[in-house]
Write a structure and sequence with these properties.
Strands 14, 18, 19, 20, 21, 23, 24, 25, 26 and 27 form a ten-stranded mixed sheet that branches. Strands 10, 11, 12, 13, 15, 16, 17 and 22 form an eight-stranded mixed sheet that branches. Strands 2-4-3-7-8-9 form a six-stranded mixed sheet, sandwiched between helices. Helices cover 36% and strands 20% of the residues. Strand 8, helix 8 and strand 9 form a beta-alpha-beta unit. It is globular, with a radius of gyration of 28 Å.
């Protein structure tokens, strides 16, 4: 790992334009979704898990259009694209749409020709209209008449009935009719929305099935089969399901807003009707109907997609979640629990030593126990916590409410602008305030993304602070399938810094100089760049320079340029970047010493770990922040050190080294911007980082990780 690299052997730095130095962020995001799609293509994975990955691609693409494409469309000009394409908005969007079209085509081909047929072979049957036998058709007809038809409201278009407002990502139908309506008018087009209260996937009674197993049909199929019943006296000439995706960014005027919560509550309604960014129609939709919808939504042809299946494939996740076929899913996994952490005496344990948690391989329950213990412990006088994504139901949030009701000083910084979690966070904020907690909404314009909790406990020597810091959200649900680190500590320096950050966020005063932690937007980017340059200086002295960093995304130009410079100075750099990466590795004279890989597997890789060798001091930082400009300069983020030598070794052994050795779920980024999947070389044993960590840390593991066992 520490092989010496002579600086004078490095080739001279070439003169490269911006296009050669940086990869396009949008295309890199789509490359990530190709890697997710490859999981659905992997025949070694259980069948229902392959379907799950197909659904994840759909939801990822929804967000890509709602956020990234919407952001590009909202710009009036693009000064320069990062990949050398013609510098215009149209060209950038065209590239993204072209890549999406290829991705979506492969996605539906995989669904129709591989996943659904194999599911049927395993007793899970998705029945289209022509597949249903007479008994099944009769049952579907009865279901339609009793459950569906009463809720449908077809709207015939005429001057008194203009094109209706269509909610973001809702299922709708366009119908072309012959003849005249009941009033003698030739209204030819009707629009109808599918009620949101109805399930999109419907299970038929097992006794009606001709084959063993479970039979399902889609709500869209049920409605389309009975469209003639809705238009008595008229012939249905043509029809299609359709779905429109809209801009979902919320906007409030930071200078004018007086009450952020009220402003957001108003904006949440309008999100459903933002400007349209994508139109999906059924493959059989006639061109004139598709063009009619395109014009109604003012969408360019490049963002109209005719799909061979349901317009919202993500709805098929209902089959994955509801079907009890363990052999078609990943084997159950029970996370481990830290051997040295006594859940009945958490504060006693932390007074003696720090505890490092590695989710989901280790349980998130100790974090919940930490807050619940604080809520019920008479010696605890105050709790402070940040909340970004807690979810709709949360034991942890209930514990904070209970603590406030018991008279403890509870301060919660709730980020109301957490995208797609705004409504849940508003609800928690209201409940916390009703319980007597002090709720602060962070800094307007700077999302509070840091993950921190501070407990103040009255002990014999006075008030003693205890803290939890993490790389991921305080969400027990996502903690079961997101990989994250959490640190429980009573370290005086770290807890003092945590308290200073809380004071800064609530008082809006300039933060004091922190002793241990790096705080965005003030010092985090600067300190990261300083640490990178420090490794470069060490390498220039002829000593080994080494950086290993793991994160979700890498797009910050300042950090990337510092990494390029360090590479030129001989620093060996390994980057584990799950998603978007704008750094171009392996370019002689620019990034020859940089390798980039991405891990895509059973769990979503979410940890942010930054290692700097620093002349054998082995500095290790954990953070809530990716190396993106928004994280480093437009959010409240923290990076915190792990100082215990034993825990540093654990972070290297668990958080970095397995991912560098992975040769089954790892993808390496080439200098051409393409990712290639790693495979074991001849004679090499397969190594899957996540499976290794499940074995090391799961409930069946032996030994205490803190001791290196």
């Amino acid at each position: 790992m520490d092989k010496k690299v002579k600086h004078d052997e490095a080739p001279p730095a070439p003169v490269l334009d911006r296009a050669a130095q940086f990869l396009n962020r949008e295309l890199s995001l789509l490359e990530f979704n190709r890697r997710v799609l490859a999981q659905a293509e992997d025949e070694a994975l259980p069948l229902l898990e392959r379907l799950r990955f197909l659904c994840i691609v759909s939801t990822n693409l929804d967000e890509f259009f709602e956020v990234r494409v919407a952001s590009l469309l909202a710009q009036h000009t693009i000064e320069r694209s990062m990949d050398g394409m013609p510098h215009s908005l149209a060209a950038t969007l065209a590239r993204a749409s072209e890549e999406c079209r290829r991705l979506i085509a492969r996605q539906y081909a995989l669904l129709n020709h591989e996943i659904l047929p194999r599911l049927s072979d395993n007793g899970i049957h998705m029945l289209r209209r022509g597949d249903r036998n007479p008994a099944q058709r009769a049952w579907v007809k009865q279901y339609f008449d009793k459950e569906v038809r009463p809720l449908l409201t077809p709207v015939g278009l005429d001057p008194a009935h203009p094109f209706p407002r269509v909610i973001n990502k809702s299922l709708n139908f366009i119908v072309e009719l012959s003849g005249k309506d009941a009033f003698g008018r030739g209204t030819a087009i009707a629009i109808m929305k599918a009620p949101r209260v109805l399930p999109r996937v419907i299970r038929l009674p097992d006794e009606l099935s001709e084959r063993p197993g479970a039979s399902y049909c889609l709500l869209s199929s049920v409605i389309q089969a009975h469209l003639p019943d809705l238009f008595t006296g008229r012939e249905v000439i043509a029809y299609s399901q359709f779905r429109v995706t809209r801009n979902s960014d919320l906007w409030v005027d930071e200078e004018e807003v007086k009450n952020l919560r009220q402003a957001l509550q108003s904006e949440l309604h309008t999100r459903q009707y933002g400007f349209a960014v994508r139109l999906e129609v059924g493959r059989g939709c006639p061109a004139h109907l598709s063009n009619f919808l395109r014009d109604q939504f003012c969408i360019d042809d490049s963002r109209v997609f005719a799909v061979d299946g349901p317009v919202n494939m993500g709805r098929l996740l209902e089959i994955v979640n509801s079907h009890a076929r363990p052999e078609l899913k990943f084997a159950p996994f029970t996370p481990g629990f830290p051997a040295k952490l006594n859940p009945h005496d958490i504060f006693g344990t932390l007074a003696r030593q720090d505890v490092l948690l590695h989710h989901p391989f280790q349980s998130f329950q100790p974090v919940v126990d930490f807050i619940q213990s604080a809520a019920t412990d008479p010696a605890v006088v105050a709790i402070k916590q940040t909340i970004y994504r807690a979810g709709m139901n949360s034991e942890l949030m209930e514990a904070l409410i209970s603590a406030a009701q018991r008279g403890k000083e509870v301060t919660v910084i709730v980020e109301l602008m957490a995208r797609f979690d705004e409504e849940a966070n508003i609800n928690w904020a209201e409940r916390l305030e009703e319980a007597g907690a002090q709720v602060v909404y962070g800094v307007v314009g700077l999302k509070t993304h840091a993950k921190m909790a501070l407990v103040l406990r009255r002990e014999a020597a006075g008030l003693r602070p205890y803290a939890h810091l993490g790389t991921g959200n305080y969400n027990p649900t996502t903690a079961r399938f997101y990989s994250d680190f959490g640190l429980l500590t009573a370290d005086a320096g770290i807890t003092a810094d945590v308290n200073e950050v809380f004071i800064h966020l609530t008082s809006m005063t300039k933060p004091k100089q922190l002793d241990c932690m790096w705080l965005a937007p003030f010092t985090l980017q600067k300190e990261m760049v300083r640490a990178i340059r420090q490794e470069a200086a060490i390498a220039r002295e002829g000593k080994p320079g080494r950086i290993i960093a793991k994160m979700n995304s890498l797009t910050d130009e300042t950090v990337i340029r510092a990494l390029y410079d360090a590479s030129g100075d001989g620093v060996k750099i390994d980057l584990i970047v799950r998603g978007a990466c704008s750094l171009r590795p392996g370019v002689p004279g620019l990034s020859a010493n940089i390798r980039v890989r991405s891990i895509v597997g059973r769990f979503l890789e979410h940890t942010r770990v930054f290692y700097f060798r620093n002349n054998l001091k082995h500095d290790v930082y954990l953070s809530s922040a990716d190396w993106m400009n928004r994280n480093l300069m437009r959010r409240i983020e923290v990076a915190f050190p792990v100082t215990s030598p034993g825990l540093k070794k654990r972070l290297l052994r668990e958080g970095l080294q397995p991912y560098l050795k992975d040769n089954t779920s790892a993808w390496e980024l080439g200098s051409d911007g393409q990712y290639r999947r790693r495979k074991p070389r001849s004679g090499q044993k397969p190594c899957n980082a996540q499976e290794l960590l499940m074995t090391m840390l799961g409930a069946g593991a032996h030994g205490d990780p803190a001791k290196g066992e």
